[in-house]
Amino acid sequence: VVQQMGPQKIVTMIIVTLIMVISFVFISARISQPNMQLLYGGLEAKEASLIADKLATMAIKYEVRGESNIYVPNNKVGELRLKIAGEGLVGNSIKGYEVFDNSSSFGTTSLVQNINSRRALEGEIARTIMSLPAVKNARVHLVIPKKRLFLKENTKTTASVVVNVGSRVLQEEQINSIMHVVASSVPNLLPEDVSIVDNRGKLLSAGEGQNDMSKITTSEKYKSKIENKYQAQITNMLETIIGVGKVNVKVSAEVDMNSMEETSEIYDPKNQVVRSEQTNEEELSSQGASTSSAVGTASNLDDGNNTDSDGSMNNGPKENQTKSQSTINYEISKTVRHSIKQAGKITKLSVAVVLEGKYKTTGEGENATRQYIPLTESQLAKIKALIKSAMGFNTDRGDVVEVVDLPFTEIEELPEPEKDLLAGVDVMKIVEYILLLIGFVVMVIFVIKPILTTTHHVVRAKMPKEVKIPEPIISQAALETNEEDEEENDMLVNVTNVEGKVRDASIKKAANIIENHPEESTQVIRKWMLSDVPTK
């Protein structure tokens, strides 16, 4: 067979056979391989090495994709995560207060102790941040200045945090939570002194100046909260009157977010109260000098005539003087007022309401039409009055309320999305089976079929030519057959593997022919066996 095919066909068949065998083995290996699922991702080199050694010890097949992503069979993910987490192989690279477990304070300098204390604090804070579901990994760096006695102002304590969130995005609340967790864990650290950066290099918290942004965000949220509150109140009230789905309310609020603290003292001069009164009276008495006396020794000598009855000198006229002084202290009424103006005061409300009236159907069947019936002016006025009462309408603030009656546009319902027939189906497995089937068909067409065809042609070429039976044998057989036909009452016997019934005499005649001519009979039987169409 090989000699008849030729070298070119043989080489082609060998190459095709090898390709098909290799493809068959590869696809079979892929099909028999279990589905791999991520066990842990984003690991550090040390953690990945420890986990890989543990999986090898447990004789579990695993794959390392990328730099530090470990995949295991999907039916063992949960069990392996519990075992690995229980042994502390994950997160073991971040040291907290464990740095002091194997260290001895004897012979350790204060510098090393301070560094270890800071490392431990950074590790514990990083672990706390990693406990958040959105954070895969975190690193914390603290700058804690030394306290100096002779400095009035010391350097501020600051912190920087790098978080790995994968493809997720941290919300504002989560960022603020991380800032306050770090600030609360370090003495003298303020939340605005904490900077946060994600794994994409995006600055999430800028540290200083963050309070201003937080205030802006808070004011916007407070404004939206007020608007949603009034909108819900008005909508619920009107839907009970007009109907569900026939009311559209929008509220716009102007809010004063400025806070002010004021202390004032007010005096009322009209309300005076006497607190104290003091009166002093003073009476003075003096004797004037005589102008008629001569100057000399005689005038200076007391002869008894210049003395009064009390013995005092009487040199001139006597003067009496009285002095009176009164002091009254009044207490003036004073009012001390300390007022704090809180932020969030509503300065103006604007409400816009769109209502849909009723529809009246006229006609029947295909000729039916819908006619829109708007609300009357009196109904709109009553609804407007209800809205003003519900919102606390204030003319001094300049509140505005507008109510309009308009038909709503009908929204066409979107068709339901078609169910995905391939949902939950492993498409790659199906593709591998299809490729395996195609490979088998190609092997049959290009390898097995050519071999069978060539073998068949070679066998037919080697088959002996048509054997000519000698005339005496044919004549004798024909004569004997005619004699058999004349014997109508000859017995019929069953022969195995022969259709129908054969006369016993015919079998005997055939046996005699084979016995007398064995070589010719053998060639005839061999020809029958090698022929495509059975000989009758």
Q: Please estimate the helix content.
A: 40-55%
Mean model confidence by pLDDT: 75
Unreliable parts? 465-469, 484-497
CATH superfamily of the domain at 97-209: ANL, C-terminal domain
Order of helices and strands: HHEHEEHHEEHEEHEEHEEEEHEHHEEHH
The span between the termini is 30 Å
Rg on CA atoms, Å: 59 Å
Query: How many beta-strand elements?
Result: 16
**What proportion of the residues form beta strands (DSSP E)?**
15-25%
Structural class: alpha+beta
CATH architecture of the domain at 97-209: 2-Layer Sandwich
- Please give the count of helices: 13
Query: Can you list the strand order of the major beta sheet?
Result: 4-5-6-7
Explained architecture:
- With 536 residues, the protein is of the alpha+beta class.
- Among the domains are: 82 residues, Alpha-Beta Plaits (2-Layer Sandwich); 113 residues, 2-Layer Sandwich (GMP Synthetase, Chain A, domain 3), CATH 3.30.300.30; 78 residues, 2-Layer Sandwich (GMP Synthetase, Chain A, domain 3), CATH 3.30.300.
- The strands form six sheets. Strands 4-5-6-7 form a four-stranded mixed β-sheet. Strands 1-3-2 form a three-stranded antiparallel β-sheet, covered by helices on one side. A three-stranded mixed β-sheet has the order 8-11-14, with helices on one face.
- Helix 11 runs antiparallel to helix 12.
- The longest helix is centred in the C-terminal third of the chain and has 36 residues.
- The protein is elongated, with a radius of gyration of 59 Å.
